[in-house]
Amino acid sequence: VVKKAVCRFVRLKHSLAAIKTIEAFKEFDRNKGYINCRDLGECMRTMGYMPTEMELIELSQQISGGKIDFEDFVELMGPKMLAETADMIGVKELRDAFKEFDSNGDGQISITELREAMKKLMGEQLNSRDIDDILCDADLNGDGLVDFEEFVRMMSR
Prior knowledge:
Elements: H1 2-28, E1 34-36, H2 40-46, H3 53-62, E2 67-69, H4 70-85, H5 91-101, E3 108-109, H6 111-122, H7 128-138, E4 146-147, H8 148-155
Antiparallel strand pairs: 1-2, 3-4
């Protein structure tokens, strides 16, 4: 359940990546509705994806007519961007999510903070038993709180 809440938080952050995709395409689109194949590598790099020369050659062979429209660009970039982040939420995203749960900023998530964060992120009220179970499962040192290290371990299970 906590993973689901954190994933929802991260998805919101990744909405910004969609905006980045639009902006990258617009930067290389010369008001024709497409970008040239020769600009594809540079466009991808502006989005933070570093294609190899071999990837660019393979991509250019898949693109008919030497140009790619926005819809095909999104279809092309979606799997590439997901492959980079699949099964791996970065430390920054985990730290941001942890801060979202740790509302008082003391570096630990209490049962009250967990309950509030779950309601805020998931839009639902979990019962006390569910919250206790989540906290107990995550609280490896038994102090009744979840610190960042415990949070990361919980998210990686």
